[in-house]
Amino acid sequence: MQLASQRISLAMMAVALGLTVATVLVVPTGLIPYWLVAVGALTAFITYAVLGSPLAAVLVWFATLAFLHEEFARLILPGFFNLTIPRVLLVVLVVLFIVMVAVGRVRTRWAHPAGLLMLAILAYFTVSAFVSGFQTIAIASVHYRLIAGYWFPFIIFALMVQAIRTDLDVRRVLYFFLFLGLYLTFIGWAEHFKLWQLVWPSFIADPSKGIHWGRVRGPFLASPIMGLTMVYVFFNNLVLARTNGTVLRLICRLAAAATLPVIFWTQTRSVWLALLAAGALWVALSRRGLSRGVWLSAILAVSIAGAAYNWRDISSTRREAGGVTSVEPIYVRLGLFLITRDMFFDRPVLGVGFGHFRDHAMRYAHNPSSPYYAFASSAMEHNNFLSIVAECGLVGLALYLWLLIVLLKASIRLYRRLPPMGTEPVCRDIVVLYWVLYLDFFIDAMFRETSVSPFANALFFGLSGVIFALDYLLGPEPLPEEASSGAHAPASPPRALSPA
Question: Which end of the chain is more exposed for a tag (fewer CB within 10 A), N or C?
């Protein structure tokens, strides 16, 4: 050990001496500050690759995607993609994992068959985009939807599969979403009461940014994404509330309770539906009957109280106030379905080309007097599955549905491997939490095209990587069940999860 340390010290001294000589003899005087910054950054990168946590790097990327995206900062490069913090950081993440694999920090895992399906989807969608072209009249560009909607989330899935190593890693993911949820909850309350001086980043308070101004939309600048995330955070906090520590349990329960008004204030019907459906799923499958019944009662109580208090707005036709009697969204979706149907009949196998629904939709609005066509002809697709079948045909839809089935089957297999009352947090509740997210994402995808929302897709596919990692690590045999299922398990040190 001492010999190895001496060798490392000698190597570092040699590198430092070489850099000093290069600085003095090679680098021009005016560039020395930039040279030193570059050397420092490279040194920090190598040090992190050798000593740092791969999971922490992935979670930092999630945070930047949530509130440091293109509305926070972007570098516009003519003839190239705009550079944003999440895009640059994702490239750094990929290089970091390659270095970690090279130095033996991370052992490569192949998430078969989901990984192969993701590669097939990326290849097919990318070829479809190249063949049909990248020019579009749609606000969301073809390359934005392709890269942010599919490449980024699938890469994060692969990185998350590599990053989860121990039960402590699973706990860290839960803690991350606890703290992210606290931030989003604070922002949601501040938005609702128009305390704009407390809102950060400041673009949240800019009505010219994003959509759904007037509702709680958070840093995502869209109320459905805020709602999807908060529904997941609510149940994430319920899982954490079952861990050891009275203070932690109290914090998690209070945090969960504080998210419910924010979910209601998104004024988005798909979000409300997701909360109620996820609550029913939680009651059916979560492992503690009393607490799950209490929380479902809390959800229903808040929903009823909120509906009663805001009934005038809810029963109105004003969508920004959550009015459920507004017919325009219904007309839009019916019209989009009719347009998609005709578009599919014309090109059933390969579709019109990835990202080009809007470019062809006007031709299929056959009856201008129809309110369905009138509302839908200028709208982008509002359903993931209809969007894929219109743009990429049956081939694209089959690949996407196959991937969703594979992810669900992996979670069911993991659920069966885990004991009913396993050690926190690696127990069946973590799978039920994933099913909550799966249902949440599915409902969102039925009402919206999620490829224009990088965080929604990254959240779903990234946390699918946690399930695949656990499924891989735990092997074919279930974990031993605890002797006593009544009380909380005693605290235990982090344990490596390895195949049986």
Answer: N
Q: Alpha helix locations (H) across 133-222?
A: 142-146, 152-163, 167-192
Domain locations along the chain:
109-328+375-474
- Taken in order 106, 108, 110, 114, the sign of the CA dihedral is positive
User: Residue 83 belongs to what H/E stretch?
Assistant: strand 83-84
Q: Are 264 and 272 in contact (CB under 8 A)?
A: yes
| Tokens 């006007």 belong to residue | 362
Q: Bridge-partner residues for 74, per DSSP?
A: 84
Among 145-159, 188-202, 315-329, 477-491, where is mean pLDDT lowest?
A: 477-491
> CB of 271 within 8 A of CB of 218?
no
Of residues 236, 313, 218, 338, the one with CA closest to residue 278: 236
The rounded distance, in Å, linking the Cα atoms of 317 and 142 is 33
Structure tokens at 160: 């998350």
Report residue 136's pLDDT band, with 50, 70 and 90 as the boundaries.
confident
Distance, in Å, from the CA atom of 339 to the CA atom of 342, rounded to the nearest integer, reads: 5
Cα separation of 75 and 84, whole Å? 6
Q: Which two tokens stand for residue 393?
A: 């045909």
Tell which wins on pLDDT, 104 or 483: 104
- Identity of the amino acid at 77: L
For residues 401 and 392, give the distance between their C-alpha atoms in angstroms, rounded to a whole number: 13
Cα dihedral: 383, 385, 387, 389 (round 10) = -150
Mind listing the pLDDT tens digit for each residue in 273-303?
999 899 889 888 876 544 555 656 666 666 6
Quick one: CA torsion of 445, 451, 453, 457, rounded to 10 degrees? 70
pLDDT at 300: 65
For tokens 């560009």, name the residue: 141
pTM equals: 0.86
469 Cβ contact list (under 8 Å, min separation 6): 109, 160, 161, 162, 163, 164
Residue with tokens 């039920």: 432
What is the average per-residue pLDDT within 29-56?
A: 82
Kindly report the number of other CB atoms within 10 A of residue 348's CB atom: 12
Name the token pair of 78.
């003519």
